Amino acid sequence: MIPDKTIGRLSIYRRILNRLLSEGVKNVFSHQLAVMAGVTPAQVRRDIMSIGYSGNPNRGYGVNDLIESIGHSLDDPLGQQVALVGVGNLGRAILTYFSGRRPRLAIVAAFDNDPKKFDRVIQGCRCYNIERLDEVVQELGITIGAITVPLGEAQKVANALVRAGVKGILNYAPVRIQVPLNVYVEDIDMTMALEKVAYFARKK
Amino acid sequence: MIPDKTIGRLSIYRRILNRLLSEGVKNVFSHQLAVMAGVTPAQVRRDIMSIGYSGNPNRGYGVNDLIESIGHSLDDPLGQQVALVGVGNLGRAILTYFSGRRPRLAIVAAFDNDPKKFDRVIQGCRCYNIERLDEVVQELGITIGAITVPLGEAQKVANALVRAGVKGILNYAPVRIQVPLNVYVEDIDMTMALEKVAYFARKK
DNA sequence: GCCTGTGAAGCTATTCACAGCT
DNA sequence: AGCTGTGAATAGCTTCACAGGC
User: Fold this and answer.
1) What local confidence, expressed as pLDDT, does residue A63 receive?
2) % helix / strand / coil in chain B, to the nearest 5?
3) Which residues have CB under 8 Å from A78's CB, separation 6+?
């Protein structure tokens, strides 16, 4: 299996490659990709090696082929559905951001407990009463949840998502949620990130 | 110097400790902190060791003392000022989130190029015309920038922040920005995070 | 007995450096 | 000449395991 860190970088390479493709670039060398991704050329070559794609010493990597090869490793051929729970400021930002961007990995349902928010369409995404989570998750075949609720409700929401059968969670709430081992959690901790920047801004 | 990863975890420990403090907890053991932070007890002990704080084999760590000790390592005694550039959905979410939370590390100015947004107060934060970035950053002694503008403007904004003298950048735009070596950048890449979750949700 | 602090071991991730290709 | 692919070396991070303390 491809390691954690490599998966993240492949996702970054793909985004860069898609931009290059739209600019009409046909081939790219590891050192060029490296600059754009902010890593070393050796790292790029190793990562690409790990998905079994091979470049050509003369032309480098074929932009189009590499995009496809990364997709083959990262994407589910059938697509994966995402649910977002918590339609506050952050939730809306994320809905806007992902709206219609990626058909293979789309936020197909949002949930909230506020009647002013559910039963309408927000940023192109249908918003449901959170009480219907179980039902909707199963109906739409959702396997991934994004938690953008306030701290105090995060664990409750995580439990509900797990109960509904979700296998991966993207957690924006500033608490570590407890889930069974077969559920993957990725935390995005904004406070932590800012404090880290603050620390290293001083130490450089 | 304390390593990158440790800084991040210290920030997490501190948040947990503050919650414990508010609940009246006086002491805590490494294994308790470990569960709440989602790491191993040995890791907790190492991290705490790295800031030179010592616990007591009988009572564990003093909650209050440890908070202070972490603060002593992470925080600038004079405080650090943050500027946020880009008052869109995400920018507003972040302003709301940090509003009045941490006096030592506060977002003291927001910037945008949209006249509908600048020259007013948003979420308790004064919003300025982006053309005044240089002036305001220097006047308020800002040393940290958060970039929440669309992809295409991120590099331009980064350049402006660096020119104004900022030493750390929290970048939410999905591009690697190029900055001088003495500026620290932390990227928060939501697309990457979601794709990672999608991948590992399938592979578990 | 159960904790902390920590040297040493073990792992994982990254980079080096060069053979092989075109 | 300048690239890729990759074994080997290195660096960085985490866990083990146990001495020392109460």
Assistant:
1) 98
2) 50, 20, 30
3) none
Mean pLDDT for B133-160 is 97
Q: What pLDDT is attached to residue B99?
A: 84
B101 CB contacts (<8 Å, ≥6 apart)? none
Task: Note the CA–C1' distance, A184 to D16, in angstroms.
Answer: 26
CA dist B34 and B45 (Å) reads 9
Q: Tokens in use for B125?
A: 């934060």
Residue B3 makes CB contacts below 8 A (sequence gap 6+) with: B50
Contact call for A198 and B144, based on CB within 8 A: yes
Question: What is each CA distance from A36 to A25, A51, A71, A90, B148, in whole angstroms?
Answer: 14, 20, 19, 28, 19
CA A97, CA B138: separation in Å to the nearest integer?
A: 32
Residues written for chain B: 204
Nucleotides of C under 7 A from a protein CB: 2-7, 12-17, 20-22
pTM value surpassing 0.85: yes
Q: With cut-offs at 50, 70 and 90, classify the pLDDT of residue B132.
A: very high
Phi, psi of A199 (to 5 degrees): -65, -50
Q: Which of B89, B96, B186 sits opposite A197 (nearest CB)?
A: B186
Alpha-carbon distance A83 to A169, whole Å?
10
Q: Which residue has the tokens 């506050």?
A: A88
Query: Residue B106 CB: number of other CB atoms within 10 A?
Result: 17
A201 contacts B143? CB cut-off 8 A? yes
